[in-house]
Amino acid sequence: MHRYGLRHCDISLLTIGLLIAMVVMGWPQRTHGQNQQVTEIAGRFGLGWDAGTAAVFQAADARMAAAPLTVEMWVKAQKSGESHVFISHGLQTSGDHWELGATRDGSLYAEFAAVQPARLETSLQIADEQWHYLAAIWDNDSLQLIVDQQRLPRQVVQRANRPVQPAGFSLGTRSDEKKLTQLLIDDVRISNRARDIATVPELPLVRDDATLFLWDFEESREDYLARWTPGGETNQRNLPYPHRIAEYEFEDDSHWIDGRWQNTLKGPFLAHSFQVDNHQLGAKLLAVFLENKATGLFNLRDCSCSTGLFESQLQINPARFGLLAKPRIDGQVMWYVSPGKSWLRQNKTSNSSKGQWQPIDATELNYRGLTLHNDEVVFEYQIADTNFLEHCSNRGAVGRHAVLRRWQATALAEPLLLTLAEGIDEIIPSQIGSNQDKYFTVSAAGKHSVWQLDGST
């Protein structure tokens, strides 16, 4: 992690320039309970899986038994007085066994046979008929559980050499028991790295370069659109949900503009819940369209331009005025920050973690709005009682891409960290142009890059 201290309390203008040089999924087998039929059921996001009517089984995969490993899922367990198995890998007698579940009294537990101690027990009540986000992070010498916003203390572990009996993987039961449990499951993701989880996901989990398996239990995009747009690309009037119902969509006069539809693509910004392939984004985003096909995605919850793309293009499916499918931005992602990680402050409450940097609570991140100066967008927000203005512009040159981010801030009451990008090896400051403009060359690798705003001196 790279930090640069700014030693002026009355910061007037901060200028940073960024020059930022699937696993193929097999759908698992589903084993139904006797004389039972699985039906579509509402999940945490869209459709979910009812483990009380069927279990999900997957063939053995050695990658799911090696550290580092992160297991994430959404569960909704009933108060039944019986134990629940949320997710289980391998046989209970095997050295590659791991499992998440709830005891008879509804308390969360985790088992990892490859380490010692092999079982983590908690007092957290998870079987309360409410949706909960769970994550287990195994990072070679430690285990940690996350339940919603609560991060349990990290448990130091040691490797345990136990014989391995390769077996399968299952959701809602154990592979060697196949006993069904009263449980709803949604969005299960297994990753081959120890994810740095800062906040509860606001949107469905997505595949990225660390994803081994992802189950979202949704119908395919093609089936979804076909179900809601019978008739396809035709404009048939008697269909229950016609694909197109407005004549202006067929307008071919380049000078003719309809304020309801065509004008949404004419401005310098667009607010929506966008999608970028292989990247987890926030639910409330604002895309700023810059020169030379560059796009910055401003996360309204995190108050930061968390994603930048070059050679970008906005893709909108016009089915039912674009309401059925989220708009997608294609292009080359040059920087990215996960939701919840943009702004950090030092921990001042816990003695064990005092001085460590932690994400600022969302209640202290206040997006105030934007203003337009010609075609340039300026964001206004408040971070921990400090007012900020932020502006992005494209400063690319021939053969290079660069986005300049400028901040104007009032005096800081405490040091803050702003994460510029994840997956970065180093930031190399270099002076370009005037004395007030400082650019930072960022090369891709495997660390975080942050800018420290230090108002303490």
Describe this structure in words.
- With 457 residues, this protein is an all-beta fold.
- The chain has one helix and 35 strands.
- The strands form six sheets. Strands 4, 5, 7, 13, 14, 15, 16, 19 and 20 form a nine-stranded antiparallel β-sheet that branches.
In summary, what is this structure?
2% of the residues lie in helices and 43% in strands. The chain has 457 residues and is mainly β. A hairpin with a 3-residue loop joins β13 and β14.
Features:
nine-stranded antiparallel beta sheet; disordered C terminus; mainly beta; 35 strands; 457 residues; seven-stranded mixed beta sheet
CA-based gyration radius: 25 Å
Query: What's the main sheet like?
Result: 9 strands, antiparallel
The backbone outline, from C-alpha atoms, is: globular
N-C termini distance: 22 Å
Number of helices: 1
Question: Percent of residues in helical segments?
Answer: under 10%
Mean pLDDT across the residues is 75
